[in-house]
Amino acid sequence: MERRAWVAVLAVALAAGLCPAGAAGQGQAQMTFWSWRGEDRAFYEGMIKQFEAQNPGTSIEFQTYKPTEYSTVLSAAMQAGKGPDIVHLRAYGALQPFARPEFLVPLEDKVPELKTFARQWLDGARSRADGMVYGVPFAVQGLVIFYNKKMLQSAGVAPPKTWDQFIAALKALKDRGVTPLANGGKEGWTLEIAMGVLGPNFYGGTNFYEAVTRGQTTFKSPQFTEALAKMQEIRPYMSSGFMGVAYTDMQQLFINEQAAMFIGGIWELGYFKSQNGSLDIGVMPGPVARAGDAPWISSYDDGNYGVNARSANPSLALKFIRFTASREWGQAFTDQLRQISAVPGVVIHDPQLQEVQTWMRHATPYIMLVGFRWKNPTGSELIQSDLQGLFAGRMTPQQVGEDVTRGLSTWFEPFRGQ
Amino acid sequence: MRPSTWAGARPSPGPRRLSYRLSRALWVAACLAPALLLFTVVVAYPILSAMAYSLFRWDGIIRGGFAGLANFRRLFGQYPYSARMLTAFWHNVWTFVLTMVIQNGLGLLFAALLAGRTWGAGAYRAIFFMPVTLSLVIVGFLWQLFLNPVWGIVNKGLALIGLARLTLPWLGDAHTALVSIVLVNAWRWVGFPTIVFLAGMQAVPDEYLEAARLDGAGSGAIFRRVLLPLIAPQVNIIVILTFIGAFNWFELPYVMQGVTGEPNHATDVLGLLFYRSAFGAVDTGNPDVGLGSAIAVVMFALVLAFSSIGAVYLRRREIEA
User: Fold this and answer.
1) CATH code assigned at B290
2) How many domains does chain B have?
3) Which residues of A touch B155 (CB under 8 A)?
4) What's the pTM value of the predicted model, to 2 decimals?
5) ipTM of the complex model
């Protein structure tokens, strides 16, 4: 009796396994979309609903993974010839392991919309090996300084434009007993961001970027080390014990109006506004050396959408990818997520984002991410740790320049023997 | 069924005793097979495949050609890997030494105190053991809050008792970061050696202690000459476990100091170096399975070699004692 019951259970289980749910209806297409952006789920599911309504019989499942585990999960799946139909991809160096025809579909001739995208963002979706574009850039990021308008006003400080005004403003705030900068040094990447904001106006933005990525100069050049020396001048205006201040501490200090300025990326804006509605936020570019100079804004492609080369529904997946490259998608992305879409022609309504977009006409590549994250040891890995040494007073700007150049010379030929 | 019946059913080629032995061996093999299979799949295969991976060139996540010892040459000979490897190794050594002295020293002290007829020993035992049961992520998070330079209670407490000049960014200062997380680790684990030592001490017959006392030995002498030698097996197991724990240390540094052992690699240990080399990190490096596997092999060899030597040496001492 008992045995017969087990056989029945087994038979039912087997039968269920043999008939996947999707096989029932004609013309049904099920696709999956993998992402690490769990916090943007509402936006993606809304856009997927739109696509499903326009393409009856299609259903797309949006599946998210932890950001720190995403690449590992994705690479394991891709290597096994599996993985999702539509893939959320990172940009530049972190894209490279996947940017090959056996994993992803090259998109340049399949997605005509890409022709209108700015070249500098498409470079974030390009393979270094074959030069083809494997993704549609979804957001562009710019690095700026946020400030608390009320705190600056009550200290009688106008938003600074030049470096001297900047230091004077920080000093005025400190004299009033206000912590001028929320920034800390516990996590090296936040220092790399600070370098992205404060550095380019002193090392010479894109001119230096071009020279150093072509190997005409190195990070030992005085242009770069003097920019680092400038950066050191902000140390007295960070909170006491700033080397122990982590990223979330920085955010809390700024959101709770315990610090007047926050050097960071434009992606913070939405979070700041959602956490403290009464916070009156101003945005400014990194201060320039001389009055009248145009400030450089370090910018980069944040990531891309791609199509799995092994997708069971390649034409439908491509259709979805073309949707992500449309003005409609870009507009919704900017409106709902308060981020700058990479799709050209999107109208920005948020006043601060609008300002940043204008400044980004004078964009410079975020130097280590765009230029030196292709191989290990990456420029980011080296500079993050070295900036901690610099800010803790354990390294000089020259030592930082030497260490970065030396580390990169293991794979960046032009630095060999320098 | 007796094994010999089964073997006896076949025409035996040799003398009967040999066939009996053979059948016995077959039986033993059959009984061991499931465990052996499990061990092979779960333990031996991953270790061997990591060894194999370390001998190949890797392009991101794709295995390239055979590379010989190139990954090991990079690890030991090429900057910055050679420097990172050495830094991480010394941090592991330092962690072992500090943990032995602080965590296990305190464990021994607590055990000695609890072994006597202290009032409320049961409650203390529970309290000392409590942090061991806490989730590691919670411990890491809790102590990050306590040690926070802006609103942490450690610095606030120091300021309150007039020691404001001693307030430091404990986890962000390269001089204090490693010691801080070793102390947090000791806070969490101290209950474990305490319980193990206590169990050993309670197994020592009272007559021995009484005899020593009658001979006029003080409590210090009793501890050193009677108690300690008799709990040698417990001490040995704790030393070996501490060694393995220190050299495979990963979770707490990862939770509290990030995958690069911040700041400025001040809390970098071999486990972190392995993890970020093999799998990469979102904001820093790309995966390099070859180099990561080479580090794993070196770690495995280190732990295996030292813990076998240690085990043999300590065991011998145990017998002599």
Assistant:
1) 1.10.3720.10
2) 1
3) 241
4) 0.87
5) 0.84
